[in-house]
Batch of 2 targets.
Target 1
Amino acid sequence: MHKTDYANRDEAAKGIAAAMEADLKTLLGSQDQVTVAVAGGTTPAPIFDILAQADLDWDRVTIMASDERWVPETHDRSNAQMIRARLLTGPAAKARFLPFHQDDLTPDEGAAALCKTVSSVDMILLGMGTDMHTASLFPDAVGIDAGLAPDAPSFVVMHPPSQPEARISLSARVLNAAACKHLAIYGQDKAEALAKAQTCDAKEAPIAAVLTDMTVHWAP
Ligand SMILES: O=C1O[C@H](COP(=O)(O)O)[C@@H](O)[C@H](O)[C@H]1O
């Protein structure tokens, strides 16, 4: 893990978007198709606003969420809704988007279907909560052991008591294996949470399971 600090969140958004653009260029130079998993929540939208304008072969890129709240895409809490609106726009509209939620499937059925199509991702942009969750790998979730297991499937279903809905998440195994890894965290509380996570086991601090070769981007 290595950490890059920025003066403020605007500078962080620019720096993270530039780092992701550079990684995408490298990946697209060595492989035909590139798969990217990005966080939902509040942190990444300004990064997406910049990255979406990058001059890249977006038609060779597949974008998915790192995790999804099991709600329809019309719901305000849908990560897919935010990612489509802020990243799949401008030049990046040529990318393919892989939604997770399907109205007619339960979360378990949805996860099983996704496991048949996704076995790995090339690049990740993750976020983290002050509770040290990342993607939807929550410390309090029913299902967290399965999400952290070394032989976990690509997708796992989480039922965090702290959250209003079931979640589907890429497993720690798949997230940690990405070739290019970025974590965006803002604020002193998240800096302290990340420092604490490094002293905890992954069950208590799921972010700790995905920090191998991670670039952590922090701003106050
Ligand atoms: O619920 C979620 O939260 C985390 C962190 O979100 P933030 O609003 O604090 O940036 C996010 O990374 C994850 O994708 C999302 O589903």
Target 2
Amino acid sequence: MTTEPGSRGDRPLLRVAVPNKGSLSEGAAAILREAGYSQRTDSKQLVHLDSDTGVEFFYLRPRDIATYVGEGTLDVGFTGRDLLIDSGAAAEEVLGLGFARSRFRFAAPTGTDYTEESLDGVRLATSYPRVVGQYLARRGVTPRLIELEGAVESSIRLGIADVIADVVETGTTLRQAGLQLFGEPILQSEAILIKHTGRDAMPTAYDTLVRRLNGVLIARTYVMLDYDVDNDHLDEACKITPGLEGPTISPLARDGWYAVRAMVKRAEAQQLMDQLWDLGARAILATDIAASRL
Ligand SMILES: Nc1ncnc2c1ncn2[C@@H]1O[C@H](COP(=O)(O)OP(=O)(O)OP(=O)(O)O)[C@@H](O)[C@H]1O
Ligand SMILES: O=P(O)(O)OC[C@H]1O[C@H](OP(=O)(O)OP(=O)(O)O)[C@H](O)[C@@H]1O
Ligand SMILES: [Mg+2]
């Protein structure tokens, strides 16, 4: 028998559930690739072993992933926070991954005046009955839940529901269906990594996966800023770019000048570069971080 590098005998070191389609699948494969794991090359492939790391990936329906992880069949999985809660599976969130962000909201035809408290006995269509049922039960409200697979926004026009609770990203689908939001946001969702609840003894490959994913998230969130500044403005410049643990300061060959290097939030980089320029800093460069371990 041949042994794959990174695996023990024919058993993979870690078995990971990855969404095979829908809003989560591309983002999950992309973050795994960025974290250095190979992914399937054909969308019909059900299983893929990354032989360098001994991690085996199972491509499954997004809704089923929490069930597999909750049953302990697979070690970890990529899913949505809303899907995890709706599953009721014995699985817990390990890490928010920052993509497939959405809000889960109530909506009703424009011009109506539904409130959360008015939903007792009202026909409420949703693909997430447990999320909605639990949320309203905490408020002592019991709607008539109508469970649908998707295209929930059409259910009111088609006469099978009075209100809906569904995933909202831009709000375009709601608007096109002539619906308006009401009530509070039920939950904010995003892609997450999950593991079995209460399973503490995880393989080393799990720690490596989490560290690598965290590294990608940091690399996506931050850029490296480099600039030159003179001694008179060094302290002020370091206040603008304190970095994570303090900026790196190196003397330049030019007398009285320093090179400074610090990580800054990508979203703030342009504004910080303007501030540094106004202060007298020059040769200000922002560089992408390809990967990180902090
Ligand atoms: N338009 C959207 N924008 C961002 N996230 C979304 C959007 N639609 C669904 N999601 C998220 O995707 C996850 C659901 O994935 P799932 O594959 O079951 O549905 P989907 O992406 O709507 O795909 P499909 O309806 O084509 O099967 C949930 O976490 C949900 O919050
Ligand atoms: O706020 P928006 O940007 O319009 O996005 C939200 C819509 O996207 C998803 O639908 P999808 O296209 O996946 O179809 P589905 O309802 O059949 O799942 C979700 O279920 C909403 O309907
Ligand atoms: Mg959908």
